[in-house]
Specification:
alpha+beta, 2 domains, elongated
């Protein structure tokens, strides 16, 4: 009987130990991981770590425990963090991907370590379970030879220097014809502009166009003397005389307009100019700057009207 009680106690102890172990079993565990090759990695390479994590369905991943993208240390960056989850019975599966990029530039083969990351899972009762992603060591290879071929030569820099890349030449043959056409059109446009503006010495420009150019410097001056104003008026008179091929007086305005009907619509402005000129030259009336502006506007209008006549 005593032996039977001892056996029963041993059985109960074993059963309770198993039950306690099941109850204290970790709620989160890594069931699959893929960290890629751990050799032959060079500066600038991107390293992807994939984890498949199983956790009790009443626990969920705390997003604040996920590693933060950015610089982990002077040679390692965490570029991206991706995760997805799905329910499977009473468990939840998390697929987690961490993408690292290394900027370490070794001179020889070196072993480096990506540090461990800790995740936290919690339930509705605010109970927390931690899971540590293991650290991972790998070897990095240099991107240049340890002893360059130029070492020992007279010019040691030759071992590090590479030949210059030849410049890439663009074929511009199909641009030549359009550029030639645009150049010809631009030249013709400039010539027409100078011709109709009277800037060409041999062009049949209106004398009022030349008078307008003579008056323009006076418009830039703030103060004009009496001599300046008389010179401006005389330039306008000279334009009338050149157009009529004789001296035009105020009494001859009607005859001038009959001979040159393109100016008929400006008869009132022409008569006003001759009257103002007579007051200045024959009655010593003191004129102001506005008189020069009026002469410029008259020459501008008559030059536009005369241009139609000269080109028709």
């Amino acid at each position: 009987m005593r032996h039977l009680l001892c056996l029963l106690c041993v059985f109960l102890a074993a059963f309770s130990h198993t039950l306690f172990a099941e109850n204290t079993a970790p709620s989160a565990q890594i069931i699959q991981l893929d960290q890629g090759r751990d050799y032959g990695i060079m500066v600038g390479d991107v390293i992807h770590h994939h984890y498949l994590i199983k956790v009790n369905s009443n626990y969920s991943l705390s997003l604040s425990s996920l590693p933060v993208k950015g610089e982990l240390n002077y040679w390692l960056d965490l570029n991206n963090v991706k995760f997805a989850s799905k329910h499977q019975g009473d468990k939840t599966l998390y697929r987690l991907t961490l993408s690292y990029q290394t900027f370490y530039a070794p001179l020889d083969v070196r072993r480096l370590i990506i540090p461990s990351q800790e995740l936290v899972f919690s339930n509705d009762n605010n109970e927390r379970v931690s899971l540590a992603l293991p650290d991972w060591s790998f070897t990095m290879s240099p991107i240049k030879e340890i002893t360059p071929s130029g070492v020992g030569n007279e010019d040691a820099t030759a071992g590090f220097m590479k030949a210059d890349i030849s410049p890439f030449l663009l074929d511009t043959a199909h641009y030549k014809t359009p550029m030639l056409i645009y150049a010809v059109l631009a030249s013709v446009s400039i010539l027409l502009l100078t011709y109709f503006s009277g800037w060409l010495p041999l062009s049949n420009a209106s004398p009022f166009t030349r008078a307008k150019r003579q008056l323009k410097p006076y418009l830039r001056r703030r103060e004009l003397s009496q001599d300046d104003i008389e010179a401006a008026l005389q330039a306008c008179h000279d334009a009338f005389n050149q157009r009529a091929k004789h001296t035009v007086f105020a009494s001859q305005i009607n005859a001038f307009l009959i001979e040159h009907p393109q100016f008929s619509s400006h008869k009132q402005a022409i008569e006003t100019f001759f009257e103002q000129s007579r007051q200045v030259f024959f009655f010593d009336q003191k004129a102001d700057n506005q008189r020069v502006k009026d002469c410029y506007q008259l020459c501008k209008q008559l030059a536009a009207a005369d241009k139609v006549s000269l080109t028709s």
